Amino acid sequence: MTVDADTRLADDAVLAMRSAFALQSNLVAAAGILVPVCSKTMSGRFFQWFQTYEYIRNFIARFAWMRADSLLLISGAFASFRRDALLTLYVLAPLPLLAVTIYYVNSIIHKKSERIQALLSDLTTNAQESFSGIRVIKSFVQETNMRRFFNATSEEYRKSSVNLSLTEAIYFPAMNFFIGLSMLSTVLIGGYPLRRFRSLGAFTPNNPSAR
């Protein structure tokens, strides 16, 4: 059951909703009738009339879809949905794998990020020290050694950055894949009963995008 924060229910609203589901075993979703209530001022009455007109227009369209047994959207201000345990299981099945993958890959990204930050810190520190002691470096003829050090550290920093980018390039599409797999399983398993003339609303409550 969903109720908006600015919705005030009638005394028998919850009882009526429970009775509707109890009397109709094939009922998968139901919504209450919304009545706008605004202030008693002239502007309040105008907005109340405008909201009433908007609700009537929207509900007429949804009533037409309901008559065609194709209603995919129900007002969430006050609504109830019958959950399907099997569909819920299929939706939640990939989530443990998703959680383990997120934990494992985030640990790898964290270690690689720390390595990159350490290399960048070394480069910055040594660059500042070299500029400060440039005369000492030239006095002891260490320009070649310092150049080799900076080239080696810069190359290691570049490789570490590319490695991190590669990990992230695999990680984020993988997350979308597992999320899409969850949604696909919902559509496939929920769509199968449609071939046996079950109501389309049977899988609507388990599909967040259909609310």
Query: Hey, roughly how much beta strand do the residues contain?
Result: under 5%
Cα-to-Cα separation, first versus last residue: 12 Å
Element-by-element helix/strand order: EHEHEHHHH
- Overall form: elongated
How large is the count of helical segments?
6
Which structural class best describes the helix and strand composition?
A: mainly alpha
By DSSP, the count of extended strands is 3
Uncertain residue ranges: 197-211
Mean pLDDT over all positions: 77
Helix content: 55-70%
The biggest beta sheet reads: 3 strands, antiparallel
* Order of strands in the sheet with most strands: 1-3-2
- The count of domains is 2
Quaternary organisation of the protein chains? single chain
| Radius of gyration, whole Å | 31 Å
Can you put this structure into words, describing what you see?
With 211 residues, the protein is mainly alpha-helical. It has two domains: 2-82, no CATH class; 94-190. 66% of the residues lie in helices and 4% in strands. The chain contains six helices and three strands. It has helices spanning 13-23, 42-67, 85-92, 94-132, 134-139, 143-191; strands at residues 2-3, 29-31, 78-81. The protein has a three-stranded antiparallel beta sheet with strand order 1-3-2, with helices on one face. α4 runs antiparallel to α6. The protein is elongated and about 90 Å long. The model is unreliable at 197-211 (pLDDT under 50).
In brief:
The chain is mainly alpha-helical and 211 residues long. It contains 6 helices and 3 strands, in the order E-H-E-H-E-H-H-H-H.
